Amino acid sequence: MDIEILARPANTLARLTFKAGEEITAEGGSMVAMSGGLTVETTTHKRGQRGLWRATKRAFAGEGLFLNHYSAARDGANLYIAPVLSGDIMTHELTGGGLIVQATSFLAHETGIDMDLGWKGLKSMFSGEGLFWLKMSGQGKVLLNSFGAIYPVAVDGEYIVDTGHIVAFDDGLDFSLSKAGKSWISSILGGEGIICRFKGKGTVWCQSHSPSGFGHAIGQMLEPIVQHQQ
Question: What is the DSSP letter of 227?
Answer without folding.
Answer: P
